[in-house]
Design brief:
YbdD/YjiX family protein, mainly alpha, Sel_put, about 55 residues, about 0% strand, about 65% helix, 3 helices
């Protein structure tokens, strides 16, 4: 059951913010880390600007 919940969370993007923060800390330590709310707002805004990158 735990594996199923992990998979669903991954498909829905639940791990994306955590991975992004890890990336910033590792590769761009001088950049400020956005709040999770800001991360998702920017991500959805980018998807609206580039609708061809979406599957649906």
């Amino acid at each position: 059951m735990k594996a199923v919940l992990w998979w669903v969370d991954s498909v829905l993007g639940g791990q994306d913010y955590r991975r992004y923060v890890e990336h910033l800390r590792r590769d761009h330590p001088d950049r400020a880390i956005p709040t999770e709310r800001d991360y998702w707002r920017d991500r959805y805004a980018e998807a609206d600007r580039k609708p061809q990158n979406r599957c649906c």
